Amino acid sequence: MSLEETERLWSLIVARCRPSGTCLGWTGARTGTRHEYGIVTTTDHQTFYVHRIAYERAYGPIPAGLTIDHVAARGCRHKTCCNPAHLEAVTNRENILRGNSLSAQRARRTVCPKGHPLAGDNLLLSSLKQGIRRCRTCANEQARAR
Length: 146
Prior knowledge:
This protein is α+β, with helices and mostly antiparallel strands.
């Protein structure tokens, strides 16, 4: 990225004070229909995510196999933020589990809907669909009812 492109990039970043800390918000082009991640296109027509550029400028190359996460524990879940202090290189699995997707919510559950613990001897892991956790007590009750 040329000096001119870098200057243009920084001209589109605005500090936004939030209760959780200062985000560096991207005001330029964004991805998706809901305007999610900030993107920048270079003069040779390559497109890059702004938060990835910010991370690399601050910490160096992103390690192979890792992705960049906006870390809630550091006060940020804003996809347009490019403050390197709010970013961390993690595995894709870790990034997903830190979020609020249905799979992340289910992974954080400690009890089943009936209140039985999802741990130890009461935890069943599905052999047909890996990663599905079930309550042994409820599974036994369902089997007896059939």
